[in-house]
Protein backbone atom coordinates (compact mmCIF):
# COMPACT_ATOMS: atom_id res chain seq x y z
CA UNK A 1 0.00 0.00 0.00
CA UNK A 2 1.40 3.42 -0.83
CA UNK A 3 2.56 5.22 2.29
CA UNK A 4 0.88 8.48 1.30
CA UNK A 5 -2.48 6.75 1.38
CA UNK A 6 -1.73 5.27 4.78
CA UNK A 7 -0.71 8.73 6.00
CA UNK A 8 -4.03 10.19 4.87
CA UNK A 9 -5.85 7.28 6.45
CA UNK A 10 -4.35 8.14 9.83
CA UNK A 11 -4.90 11.90 9.54
CA UNK A 12 -7.85 13.61 11.17
CA UNK A 13 -8.71 15.99 8.36
CA UNK A 14 -9.83 14.88 4.94
CA UNK A 15 -7.23 15.97 2.41
CA UNK A 16 -9.58 17.54 -0.10
CA UNK A 17 -12.03 19.07 2.33
CA UNK A 18 -11.88 22.60 1.04
CA UNK A 19 -12.39 21.47 -2.55
CA UNK A 20 -15.01 18.82 -2.17
CA UNK A 21 -17.37 20.03 0.49
CA UNK A 22 -20.46 22.13 0.23
CA UNK A 23 -20.96 24.68 3.02
CA UNK A 24 -22.48 23.35 6.24
CA UNK A 25 -26.23 23.74 6.67
CA UNK A 26 -27.48 27.05 8.07
CA UNK A 27 -30.80 28.33 9.41
CA UNK A 28 -33.32 29.39 6.77
CA UNK A 29 -33.50 33.17 6.41
CA UNK A 30 -36.86 34.94 6.58
CA UNK A 31 -36.63 36.19 3.01
CA UNK A 32 -34.83 35.44 -0.25
CA UNK A 33 -34.94 37.19 -3.60
CA UNK A 34 -35.36 33.84 -5.33
CA UNK A 35 -36.55 30.49 -4.02
CA UNK A 36 -35.84 27.46 -6.14
CA UNK A 37 -37.94 24.39 -5.30
CA UNK A 38 -35.97 21.24 -6.15
CA UNK A 39 -32.24 20.63 -5.79
CA UNK A 40 -31.77 18.54 -8.92
CA UNK A 41 -29.47 19.49 -11.79
CA UNK A 42 -31.98 21.99 -13.14
CA UNK A 43 -32.52 23.81 -9.85
CA UNK A 44 -28.83 24.16 -9.00
CA UNK A 45 -27.91 25.14 -12.58
CA UNK A 46 -30.51 27.93 -12.49
CA UNK A 47 -29.07 29.20 -9.20
CA UNK A 48 -25.52 28.98 -10.56
CA UNK A 49 -26.26 31.09 -13.64
CA UNK A 50 -28.30 33.62 -11.63
CA UNK A 51 -25.30 34.15 -9.36
CA UNK A 52 -22.68 33.98 -12.10
CA UNK A 53 -24.22 36.11 -14.85
CA UNK A 54 -26.84 38.23 -13.11
CA UNK A 55 -25.29 39.03 -9.74
CA UNK A 56 -28.31 37.59 -7.91
CA UNK A 57 -27.19 35.44 -5.00
CA UNK A 58 -29.78 35.89 -2.28
CA UNK A 59 -31.16 32.54 -3.37
CA UNK A 60 -32.33 29.45 -1.48
CA UNK A 61 -32.53 26.09 -3.18
CA UNK A 62 -35.01 23.99 -1.17
CA UNK A 63 -34.57 20.25 -1.64
CA UNK A 64 -36.70 17.75 0.24
CA UNK A 65 -34.15 14.93 -0.05
CA UNK A 66 -30.50 15.36 -0.93
CA UNK A 67 -28.70 17.25 -3.71
CA UNK A 68 -29.28 15.57 -7.09
CA UNK A 69 -31.04 12.57 -5.52
CA UNK A 70 -34.04 12.73 -7.85
CA UNK A 71 -33.96 11.98 -11.56
CA UNK A 72 -30.57 13.64 -11.81
CA UNK A 73 -29.13 10.60 -10.01
CA UNK A 74 -31.22 8.09 -11.94
CA UNK A 75 -30.83 8.93 -15.60
CA UNK A 76 -28.75 7.10 -18.14
CA UNK A 77 -26.84 10.30 -18.97
CA UNK A 78 -27.43 10.44 -22.73
CA UNK A 79 -26.53 13.86 -24.14
CA UNK A 80 -27.57 14.60 -27.73
CA UNK A 81 -29.30 17.14 -29.94
CA UNK A 82 -30.63 15.04 -32.83
CA UNK A 83 -34.28 15.84 -32.23
CA UNK A 84 -36.89 16.53 -34.89
CA UNK A 85 -38.29 20.05 -34.57
CA UNK A 86 -36.30 23.24 -35.21
CA UNK A 87 -37.30 24.56 -31.78
CA UNK A 88 -36.01 21.41 -30.09
CA UNK A 89 -32.79 20.95 -32.04
CA UNK A 90 -31.78 24.60 -31.61
CA UNK A 91 -32.30 24.34 -27.86
CA UNK A 92 -30.56 20.98 -27.27
CA UNK A 93 -27.66 21.91 -29.54
CA UNK A 94 -26.77 24.81 -27.23
CA UNK A 95 -26.86 22.45 -24.30
CA UNK A 96 -24.46 19.99 -25.95
CA UNK A 97 -22.06 22.88 -26.65
CA UNK A 98 -22.23 24.03 -23.04
CA UNK A 99 -21.64 20.50 -21.69
CA UNK A 100 -18.35 20.33 -23.57
CA UNK A 101 -16.94 23.20 -21.50
CA UNK A 102 -18.38 22.33 -18.09
CA UNK A 103 -15.40 20.43 -16.61
CA UNK A 104 -13.16 23.43 -17.32
CA UNK A 105 -15.72 25.90 -16.08
CA UNK A 106 -16.24 24.02 -12.78
CA UNK A 107 -12.59 22.98 -12.43
CA UNK A 108 -14.18 19.64 -11.59
CA UNK A 109 -14.35 16.59 -13.82
CA UNK A 110 -17.87 15.79 -15.03
CA UNK A 111 -16.43 12.88 -17.08
CA UNK A 112 -17.86 14.15 -20.35
CA UNK A 113 -17.35 11.39 -22.87
CA UNK A 114 -18.11 12.10 -26.50
CA UNK A 115 -18.59 8.76 -28.19
CA UNK A 116 -21.47 9.30 -30.58
CA UNK A 117 -24.99 7.93 -30.59
CA UNK A 118 -26.36 5.52 -33.16
CA UNK A 119 -30.11 5.03 -33.61
CA UNK A 120 -31.22 2.11 -35.77
CA UNK A 121 -34.02 2.17 -38.35
CA UNK A 122 -35.92 -1.02 -39.18
CA UNK A 123 -38.61 0.44 -41.45
CA UNK A 124 -38.74 2.78 -44.46
CA UNK A 125 -40.83 5.26 -42.50
CA UNK A 126 -38.11 5.52 -39.86
CA UNK A 127 -35.44 6.00 -42.54
CA UNK A 128 -37.45 8.92 -43.92
CA UNK A 129 -37.75 10.53 -40.49
CA UNK A 130 -34.01 9.98 -39.92
CA UNK A 131 -33.32 11.84 -43.17
CA UNK A 132 -35.34 14.75 -41.90
CA UNK A 133 -33.60 14.70 -38.52
CA UNK A 134 -30.20 14.65 -40.21
CA UNK A 135 -31.12 17.77 -42.20
CA UNK A 136 -32.57 19.67 -39.26
CA UNK A 137 -29.61 18.78 -37.04
CA UNK A 138 -27.04 19.74 -39.67
CA UNK A 139 -28.86 23.00 -40.31
CA UNK A 140 -28.38 24.02 -36.68
CA UNK A 141 -24.71 23.05 -36.64
CA UNK A 142 -24.95 19.55 -35.15
CA UNK A 143 -22.95 16.62 -36.52
CA UNK A 144 -25.39 13.96 -37.73
CA UNK A 145 -25.27 11.60 -40.71
CA UNK A 146 -27.47 8.91 -42.19
CA UNK A 147 -25.35 5.74 -42.52
CA UNK A 148 -25.91 2.38 -44.21
CA UNK A 149 -25.75 -1.16 -42.76
CA UNK A 150 -22.13 -1.67 -43.76
CA UNK A 151 -21.04 1.48 -41.96
CA UNK A 152 -23.10 0.38 -38.95
CA UNK A 153 -21.27 -2.95 -38.86
CA UNK A 154 -17.91 -1.25 -39.00
CA UNK A 155 -18.93 1.02 -36.14
CA UNK A 156 -20.44 -1.74 -33.96
CA UNK A 157 -19.08 -5.15 -35.07
CA UNK A 158 -20.87 -6.99 -32.25
CA UNK A 159 -24.35 -5.82 -33.25
CA UNK A 160 -26.85 -8.35 -34.63
CA UNK A 161 -27.97 -6.80 -37.94
CA UNK A 162 -31.27 -8.68 -37.90
CA UNK A 163 -32.60 -8.28 -34.36
CA UNK A 164 -36.03 -9.85 -33.72
CA UNK A 165 -36.26 -10.52 -37.46
CA UNK A 166 -36.33 -6.80 -38.17
CA UNK A 167 -33.34 -6.12 -40.44
CA UNK A 168 -31.48 -2.88 -39.79
CA UNK A 169 -31.94 -0.65 -42.85
CA UNK A 170 -30.03 2.46 -41.82
CA UNK A 171 -28.67 4.35 -38.87
CA UNK A 172 -28.87 7.90 -37.59
CA UNK A 173 -25.26 8.53 -36.60
CA UNK A 174 -25.10 11.44 -34.21
CA UNK A 175 -21.40 12.18 -33.84
CA UNK A 176 -22.03 14.75 -31.06
CA UNK A 177 -23.80 12.16 -28.88
CA UNK A 178 -22.16 11.85 -25.45
CA UNK A 179 -22.51 10.94 -21.80
CA UNK A 180 -21.35 12.60 -18.58
CA UNK A 181 -21.37 11.68 -14.93
CA UNK A 182 -24.83 12.95 -13.94
CA UNK A 183 -24.06 13.38 -10.22
CA UNK A 184 -20.93 15.37 -11.02
CA UNK A 185 -23.00 17.82 -13.05
CA UNK A 186 -25.23 18.53 -10.03
CA UNK A 187 -22.21 18.70 -7.69
CA UNK A 188 -20.30 21.04 -10.02
CA UNK A 189 -23.21 23.46 -10.29
CA UNK A 190 -23.91 23.25 -6.55
CA UNK A 191 -20.28 23.98 -5.69
CA UNK A 192 -20.17 26.92 -8.09
CA UNK A 193 -23.47 28.29 -6.84
CA UNK A 194 -22.72 27.99 -3.12
CA UNK A 195 -19.27 29.55 -3.60
CA UNK A 196 -21.13 32.56 -4.99
CA UNK A 197 -23.37 32.83 -1.93
CA UNK A 198 -26.36 30.67 -2.91
CA UNK A 199 -27.81 28.61 -0.03
CA UNK A 200 -28.58 24.95 -0.63
CA UNK A 201 -31.00 23.57 1.96
CA UNK A 202 -31.30 19.82 1.81
CA UNK A 203 -33.96 17.90 3.80
CA UNK A 204 -36.18 20.95 3.31
CA UNK A 205 -39.55 20.10 1.80
CA UNK A 206 -41.89 22.70 0.38
CA UNK A 207 -45.36 21.87 1.73
CA UNK A 208 -47.30 24.86 0.44
CA UNK A 209 -46.89 27.88 -1.80
CA UNK A 210 -48.18 31.23 -0.57
CA UNK A 211 -50.02 33.12 -3.31
CA UNK A 212 -51.66 36.49 -2.67
CA UNK A 213 -53.66 38.36 -5.31
CA UNK A 214 -52.30 36.13 -8.03
CA UNK A 215 -48.67 36.71 -6.96
CA UNK A 216 -46.25 34.20 -5.43
CA UNK A 217 -45.13 35.52 -2.04
CA UNK A 218 -43.32 32.65 -0.35
CA UNK A 219 -43.42 29.01 0.68
CA UNK A 220 -44.17 26.91 3.72
CA UNK A 221 -41.65 24.20 4.51
CA UNK A 222 -41.04 21.56 7.16
CA UNK A 223 -38.59 24.10 8.62
CA UNK A 224 -40.94 27.08 8.66
CA UNK A 225 -42.26 29.79 6.40
CA UNK A 226 -40.08 31.82 4.04
CA UNK A 227 -41.02 34.84 1.92
CA UNK A 228 -39.45 35.64 -1.43
CA UNK A 229 -39.43 37.83 -4.51
CA UNK A 230 -40.09 34.96 -6.90
CA UNK A 231 -40.16 31.19 -7.15
CA UNK A 232 -38.80 28.70 -9.67
CA UNK A 233 -40.14 25.16 -9.46
CA UNK A 234 -37.90 22.42 -10.85
CA UNK A 235 -39.19 19.23 -9.25
CA UNK A 236 -39.44 16.82 -12.22
CA UNK A 237 -41.83 13.94 -11.34
CA UNK A 238 -43.54 16.02 -8.67
CA UNK A 239 -44.35 18.94 -11.00
CA UNK A 240 -48.15 18.55 -10.82
CA UNK A 241 -48.10 18.15 -7.03
CA UNK A 242 -45.99 21.25 -6.31
CA UNK A 243 -47.78 23.35 -8.96
CA UNK A 244 -51.10 22.43 -7.36
CA UNK A 245 -49.83 24.06 -4.13
CA UNK A 246 -49.75 27.31 -6.12
CA UNK A 247 -53.18 26.56 -7.58
CA UNK A 248 -51.78 25.65 -11.00
CA UNK A 249 -53.00 22.68 -13.04
CA UNK A 250 -50.49 21.23 -15.51
CA UNK A 251 -50.66 19.24 -18.77
CA UNK A 252 -48.45 16.55 -17.22
CA UNK A 253 -48.81 12.88 -16.33
CA UNK A 254 -46.26 11.18 -14.09
CA UNK A 255 -44.88 7.81 -15.22
CA UNK A 256 -42.11 5.64 -13.79
CA UNK A 257 -39.09 5.05 -15.99
CA UNK A 258 -36.87 2.07 -15.21
CA UNK A 259 -33.28 1.30 -16.17
CA UNK A 260 -30.74 -1.36 -15.26
CA UNK A 261 -27.05 -2.19 -15.39
CA UNK A 262 -24.99 -5.40 -15.67
CA UNK A 263 -21.74 -6.59 -14.16
CA UNK A 264 -18.70 -5.00 -15.84
CA UNK A 265 -17.11 -6.58 -18.92
CA UNK A 266 -14.18 -5.70 -21.17
CA UNK A 267 -14.76 -2.58 -23.29
CA UNK A 268 -16.41 -3.53 -26.59
CA UNK A 269 -19.01 -0.88 -27.29
CA UNK A 270 -18.01 2.70 -27.92
CA UNK A 271 -21.13 4.43 -29.30
CA UNK A 272 -24.49 4.58 -27.55
CA UNK A 273 -26.81 2.30 -29.54
CA UNK A 274 -30.59 2.50 -29.59
CA UNK A 275 -33.25 0.83 -31.69
CA UNK A 276 -36.34 2.78 -32.69
CA UNK A 277 -38.42 -0.38 -33.15
CA UNK A 278 -37.25 -2.43 -30.16
CA UNK A 279 -37.61 0.53 -27.77
CA UNK A 280 -34.29 -0.26 -26.21
CA UNK A 281 -30.98 1.51 -25.84
CA UNK A 282 -27.67 0.05 -24.79
CA UNK A 283 -24.44 1.67 -23.71
CA UNK A 284 -21.24 0.66 -21.96
CA UNK A 285 -20.02 2.82 -19.10
CA UNK A 286 -16.42 3.80 -18.45
CA UNK A 287 -16.37 1.07 -15.80
CA UNK A 288 -17.42 -1.56 -18.34
CA UNK A 289 -21.00 -2.10 -17.15
CA UNK A 290 -23.78 -2.34 -19.71
CA UNK A 291 -26.63 0.12 -19.15
CA UNK A 292 -30.07 -0.68 -20.57
CA UNK A 293 -32.95 1.73 -20.87
CA UNK A 294 -36.20 1.84 -22.78
CA UNK A 295 -39.71 3.22 -22.75
CA UNK A 296 -41.70 4.39 -19.74
CA UNK A 297 -43.96 2.11 -17.72
CA UNK A 298 -47.31 1.50 -19.44
CA UNK A 299 -49.41 3.47 -16.95
CA UNK A 300 -48.92 6.40 -14.56
CA UNK A 301 -47.65 5.90 -11.02
CA UNK A 302 -45.79 7.83 -8.30
CA UNK A 303 -43.61 4.91 -7.33
CA UNK A 304 -40.04 3.86 -8.06
CA UNK A 305 -40.66 0.13 -7.68
CA UNK A 306 -39.19 -2.28 -10.18
CA UNK A 307 -41.23 -4.71 -12.29
CA UNK A 308 -40.32 -8.06 -13.75
CA UNK A 309 -42.38 -7.27 -16.88
CA UNK A 310 -40.13 -4.39 -17.79
CA UNK A 311 -36.95 -6.39 -17.15
CA UNK A 312 -38.21 -9.20 -19.34
CA UNK A 313 -39.30 -7.07 -22.27
CA UNK A 314 -36.33 -4.70 -22.19
CA UNK A 315 -33.72 -7.42 -21.80
CA UNK A 316 -35.33 -9.50 -24.54
CA UNK A 317 -34.74 -6.58 -26.90
CA UNK A 318 -31.21 -5.97 -25.61
CA UNK A 319 -30.31 -9.63 -26.16
CA UNK A 320 -31.73 -9.46 -29.69
CA UNK A 321 -29.34 -6.62 -30.42
CA UNK A 322 -26.30 -8.16 -28.69
CA UNK A 323 -27.01 -11.92 -28.29
CA UNK A 324 -23.87 -12.71 -26.26
CA UNK A 325 -25.13 -10.41 -23.51
CA UNK A 326 -27.60 -13.14 -22.52
CA UNK A 327 -24.85 -14.51 -20.26
CA UNK A 328 -24.32 -11.29 -18.32
CA UNK A 329 -25.70 -10.82 -14.83
CA UNK A 330 -27.76 -7.80 -13.84
CA UNK A 331 -26.23 -5.85 -11.00
CA UNK A 332 -28.65 -3.04 -10.26
CA UNK A 333 -32.08 -1.90 -11.32
CA UNK A 334 -33.80 1.35 -10.46
CA UNK A 335 -36.50 3.80 -11.52
CA UNK A 336 -37.31 7.48 -11.46
CA UNK A 337 -40.69 9.13 -11.76
CA UNK A 338 -40.92 11.32 -14.79
CA UNK A 339 -43.15 14.27 -15.70
CA UNK A 340 -44.44 13.52 -19.19
CA UNK A 341 -46.11 16.01 -21.54
CA UNK A 342 -48.22 14.79 -24.42
CA UNK A 343 -45.94 16.34 -27.08
CA UNK A 344 -42.70 15.07 -25.47
CA UNK A 345 -41.37 18.62 -25.16
CA UNK A 346 -40.65 20.41 -21.89
CA UNK A 347 -42.49 23.26 -20.20
CA UNK A 348 -40.37 26.29 -19.39
CA UNK A 349 -41.42 29.83 -18.63
CA UNK A 350 -44.28 31.75 -17.08
CA UNK A 351 -47.22 30.31 -15.18
CA UNK A 352 -50.71 31.66 -14.42
CA UNK A 353 -49.27 32.93 -11.09
CA UNK A 354 -47.11 36.05 -11.24
CA UNK A 355 -43.47 35.60 -10.16
CA UNK A 356 -43.88 31.83 -10.28
CA UNK A 357 -41.77 30.21 -12.97
CA UNK A 358 -42.05 26.68 -14.32
CA UNK A 359 -39.25 24.30 -15.28
CA UNK A 360 -41.08 21.01 -15.83
CA UNK A 361 -42.24 18.38 -18.28
CA UNK A 362 -38.71 17.02 -18.71
CA UNK A 363 -39.95 13.47 -18.64
CA UNK A 364 -37.35 10.97 -19.75
CA UNK A 365 -34.96 13.36 -21.54
CA UNK A 366 -34.11 16.34 -19.32
CA UNK A 367 -30.58 15.59 -18.12
CA UNK A 368 -29.06 16.74 -21.41
CA UNK A 369 -30.78 20.10 -21.13
CA UNK A 370 -29.46 20.92 -17.64
CA UNK A 371 -26.96 23.66 -18.70
CA UNK A 372 -29.07 25.50 -21.26
CA UNK A 373 -32.26 25.18 -19.23
CA UNK A 374 -30.52 26.58 -16.15
CA UNK A 375 -29.06 29.43 -18.19
CA UNK A 376 -32.41 30.26 -19.84
CA UNK A 377 -34.38 30.05 -16.59
CA UNK A 378 -31.83 32.37 -14.96
CA UNK A 379 -32.34 34.92 -17.77
CA UNK A 380 -36.10 34.65 -17.34
CA UNK A 381 -35.90 35.21 -13.58
CA UNK A 382 -33.30 38.00 -13.74
CA UNK A 383 -35.32 39.94 -16.30
CA UNK A 384 -38.42 39.74 -14.10
CA UNK A 385 -40.31 37.53 -16.52
CA UNK A 386 -39.11 38.41 -20.01
CA UNK A 387 -39.14 35.03 -21.79
CA UNK A 388 -35.89 34.32 -23.71
CA UNK A 389 -36.59 33.59 -27.38
CA UNK A 390 -34.94 30.15 -27.19
CA UNK A 391 -37.50 28.83 -24.72
CA UNK A 392 -40.58 30.77 -25.88
CA UNK A 393 -41.94 27.80 -27.91
CA UNK A 394 -42.00 25.72 -24.72
CA UNK A 395 -44.45 27.91 -22.77
CA UNK A 396 -47.19 25.98 -20.99
CA UNK A 397 -49.94 27.87 -22.81
CA UNK A 398 -48.94 26.19 -26.08
CA UNK A 399 -51.44 23.52 -25.06
CA UNK A 400 -54.22 26.10 -24.82
CA UNK A 401 -53.43 27.32 -28.31
CA UNK A 402 -52.94 23.87 -29.84
CA UNK A 403 -49.40 24.60 -31.00
CA UNK A 404 -47.51 21.70 -29.47
CA UNK A 405 -43.86 20.99 -30.28
CA UNK A 406 -44.07 17.35 -31.29
CA UNK A 407 -40.89 15.44 -30.41
CA UNK A 408 -42.48 12.08 -29.72
CA UNK A 409 -40.62 10.14 -32.40
CA UNK A 410 -37.27 11.68 -31.53
CA UNK A 411 -37.62 11.27 -27.78
CA UNK A 412 -39.47 8.15 -26.80
CA UNK A 413 -36.90 5.41 -27.27
CA UNK A 414 -33.50 7.07 -26.89
CA UNK A 415 -33.91 9.71 -24.15
CA UNK B 1 -47.32 -10.33 -12.85
CA UNK B 2 -49.73 -7.76 -11.43
CA UNK B 3 -53.39 -8.65 -11.96
CA UNK B 4 -56.45 -6.53 -12.56
CA UNK B 5 -60.07 -7.50 -12.17
CA UNK B 6 -61.87 -6.81 -15.45
CA UNK B 7 -65.61 -6.36 -14.84
CA UNK B 8 -66.25 -8.37 -18.01
CA UNK B 9 -63.49 -11.02 -18.00
CA UNK B 10 -62.44 -11.41 -14.39
CA UNK B 11 -58.84 -11.43 -13.10
CA UNK B 12 -56.34 -10.89 -15.94
CA UNK B 13 -52.66 -9.93 -16.28
CA UNK B 14 -52.11 -6.16 -16.16
CA UNK B 15 -50.34 -6.34 -19.54
CA UNK B 16 -53.71 -7.07 -21.18
CA UNK B 17 -54.98 -3.63 -20.17
CA UNK B 18 -54.38 -0.17 -21.58
CA UNK B 19 -54.59 2.95 -19.43
CA UNK B 20 -57.03 5.55 -20.76
CA UNK B 21 -56.66 8.60 -18.52
CA UNK B 22 -58.46 10.14 -15.55
CA UNK B 23 -62.25 10.18 -15.61
CA UNK B 24 -63.13 13.86 -16.03
CA UNK B 25 -66.36 15.53 -17.00
CA UNK B 26 -66.38 16.57 -20.64
CA UNK B 27 -67.39 20.14 -21.41
CA UNK B 28 -70.01 20.67 -24.12
CA UNK B 29 -67.77 20.55 -27.17
CA UNK B 30 -70.14 22.72 -29.21
CA UNK B 31 -70.35 25.64 -26.83
CA UNK B 32 -67.14 25.46 -24.78
CA UNK B 33 -64.14 27.75 -25.34
CA UNK B 34 -60.84 26.52 -26.78
CA UNK B 35 -59.29 26.84 -23.32
CA UNK B 36 -61.99 24.66 -21.78
CA UNK B 37 -61.49 22.03 -24.46
CA UNK B 38 -57.68 22.14 -24.07
CA UNK B 39 -58.15 21.77 -20.35
CA UNK B 40 -60.22 18.66 -20.90
CA UNK B 41 -57.85 17.10 -23.43
CA UNK B 42 -54.39 17.93 -22.04
CA UNK B 43 -54.56 18.96 -18.39
CA UNK B 44 -55.07 16.60 -15.47
CA UNK B 45 -54.93 16.48 -11.69
CA UNK B 46 -52.08 13.92 -11.79
CA UNK B 47 -52.05 13.70 -8.04
CA UNK B 48 -51.35 11.11 -5.33
CA UNK B 49 -54.54 9.50 -4.03
CA UNK B 50 -57.23 7.04 -5.16
CA UNK B 51 -58.18 8.18 -8.67
CA UNK B 52 -61.02 7.17 -10.95
CA UNK B 53 -59.53 6.10 -14.29
CA UNK B 54 -60.51 4.76 -17.70
CA UNK B 55 -59.02 1.36 -18.54
CA UNK B 56 -59.38 -0.79 -21.64
CA UNK B 57 -59.22 -4.57 -21.82
CA UNK B 58 -57.45 -4.85 -25.13
CA UNK B 59 -58.16 -8.50 -26.16
CA UNK B 60 -61.91 -8.03 -25.73
CA UNK B 61 -62.13 -4.35 -26.68
CA UNK B 62 -63.90 -3.36 -23.50
CA UNK B 63 -63.69 0.02 -21.67
CA UNK B 64 -64.38 0.25 -17.95
CA UNK B 65 -63.59 2.35 -14.88
CA UNK B 66 -61.05 1.49 -12.19
CA UNK B 67 -60.34 3.15 -8.86
CA UNK B 68 -56.63 2.96 -8.22
CA UNK B 69 -54.18 4.55 -5.80
CA UNK B 70 -51.55 6.40 -7.83
CA UNK B 71 -48.67 5.76 -5.41
CA UNK B 72 -49.33 2.29 -3.96
CA UNK B 73 -50.77 1.03 -7.28
CA UNK B 74 -53.51 -0.71 -5.32
CA UNK B 75 -56.60 -1.29 -7.46
CA UNK B 76 -59.57 -0.88 -5.14
CA UNK B 77 -62.50 -1.28 -7.49
CA UNK B 78 -63.38 -1.84 -11.15
CA UNK B 79 -66.81 -1.51 -12.72
CA UNK B 80 -68.75 -1.04 -15.94
CA UNK B 81 -69.01 2.61 -17.07
CA UNK B 82 -72.81 2.36 -17.14
CA UNK B 83 -72.64 2.77 -13.38
CA UNK B 84 -71.56 6.38 -13.93
CA UNK B 85 -72.59 7.27 -17.46
CA UNK B 86 -76.11 6.74 -18.69
CA UNK B 87 -76.33 9.28 -21.49
CA UNK B 88 -74.86 8.86 -24.93
CA UNK B 89 -72.83 11.79 -26.34
CA UNK B 90 -73.69 12.36 -29.99
CA UNK B 91 -70.69 13.76 -31.82
CA UNK B 92 -72.38 13.53 -35.25
CA UNK B 93 -75.18 15.93 -34.43
CA UNK B 94 -72.68 18.27 -32.82
CA UNK B 95 -70.61 18.28 -35.99
CA UNK B 96 -73.76 19.10 -37.94
CA UNK B 97 -74.51 22.03 -35.64
CA UNK B 98 -70.99 23.39 -36.16
CA UNK B 99 -71.33 23.02 -39.93
CA UNK B 100 -74.61 24.93 -39.80
CA UNK B 101 -72.99 27.70 -37.81
CA UNK B 102 -70.23 27.97 -40.39
CA UNK B 103 -72.62 28.10 -43.31
C1 LIG C 1 -34.29 5.92 -15.68
C2 LIG C 1 -34.14 7.30 -16.26
C3 LIG C 1 -33.32 7.48 -17.38
C4 LIG C 1 -33.17 8.75 -17.95
N1 LIG C 1 -32.29 8.90 -18.98
C5 LIG C 1 -32.03 10.13 -19.48
C6 LIG C 1 -31.01 10.30 -20.47
O1 LIG C 1 -30.36 9.33 -20.88
N2 LIG C 1 -30.79 11.55 -20.96
C7 LIG C 1 -31.50 12.64 -20.51
O2 LIG C 1 -31.26 13.74 -21.01
N3 LIG C 1 -32.45 12.52 -19.54
C8 LIG C 1 -32.73 11.28 -19.01
N4 LIG C 1 -33.68 11.14 -18.02
C9 LIG C 1 -34.46 12.32 -17.58
C10 LIG C 1 -33.68 13.19 -16.59
O3 LIG C 1 -33.17 12.39 -15.55
C11 LIG C 1 -34.58 14.27 -15.96
O4 LIG C 1 -35.36 14.91 -16.93
C12 LIG C 1 -33.72 15.32 -15.26
O5 LIG C 1 -32.83 14.72 -14.36
C13 LIG C 1 -34.59 16.32 -14.53
O6 LIG C 1 -33.78 17.12 -13.71
P1 LIG C 1 -34.40 18.01 -12.58
O7 LIG C 1 -33.31 18.71 -11.91
O8 LIG C 1 -35.50 18.81 -13.19
O9 LIG C 1 -35.15 16.94 -11.64
P2 LIG C 1 -34.62 16.05 -10.37
O10 LIG C 1 -33.18 15.70 -10.50
O11 LIG C 1 -35.60 14.94 -10.21
O12 LIG C 1 -34.76 17.08 -9.22
C14 LIG C 1 -36.00 17.47 -8.67
C15 LIG C 1 -35.84 17.55 -7.17
O13 LIG C 1 -37.00 18.13 -6.61
C16 LIG C 1 -37.15 17.61 -5.31
N5 LIG C 1 -38.51 17.87 -4.83
C17 LIG C 1 -39.67 17.32 -5.26
N6 LIG C 1 -40.71 17.80 -4.55
C18 LIG C 1 -40.20 18.70 -3.66
C19 LIG C 1 -40.77 19.52 -2.65
N7 LIG C 1 -42.08 19.53 -2.40
N8 LIG C 1 -39.94 20.32 -1.92
C20 LIG C 1 -38.60 20.32 -2.14
N9 LIG C 1 -38.01 19.55 -3.09
C21 LIG C 1 -38.80 18.75 -3.84
C22 LIG C 1 -36.82 16.14 -5.49
O14 LIG C 1 -36.43 15.54 -4.26
C23 LIG C 1 -35.68 16.18 -6.51
O15 LIG C 1 -34.40 16.08 -5.93
C24 LIG C 1 -33.88 9.87 -17.44
C25 LIG C 1 -34.73 9.69 -16.32
C26 LIG C 1 -34.86 8.43 -15.73
C27 LIG C 1 -35.76 8.28 -14.54
UniProtKB/TrEMBL annotation, chain A:
PROSITE patterns linked: RHODANESE_3
Keyword check for Oxidoreductase: yes
The enzyme's E.C. designation: 1.5.3.1
GO MF annotations, alphabetized: sarcosine oxidase activity
Pfam families membership: DAO
Stored InterPro entries: FAD-dep_OxRdtase, FAD/NAD-bd_sf, Rhodanese-like_dom
Residue span, Rhodanese domain: 34-78
Keywords: Oxidoreductase
UniProt xrefs under Gene3D superfamilies: D-Amino Acid Oxidase, subunit A, domain 2 (3.30.9.10), FAD/NAD(P)-binding domain (3.50.50.60)
GO CC terms: cytoplasm
Entry-linked PANTHER family: FAD-DEPENDENT OXIDOREDUCTASE DOMAIN-CONTAINING PROTEIN 1, SARCOSINE DEHYDROGENASE-RELATED
Name under which the protein is recorded: Sarcosine oxidase
UniProtKB/TrEMBL annotation, chain B:
Domain of life: Bacteria
GO MF, one example: sarcosine oxidase activity
GO biological process: tetrahydrofolate metabolic process
Pfam families noted in UniProt: SoxD
InterPro entries listed in its UniProt record: SoxD (IPR006279), SoxD_sf (IPR038561)
Name of the protein in question: Sarcosine oxidase delta subunit heterotetrameric
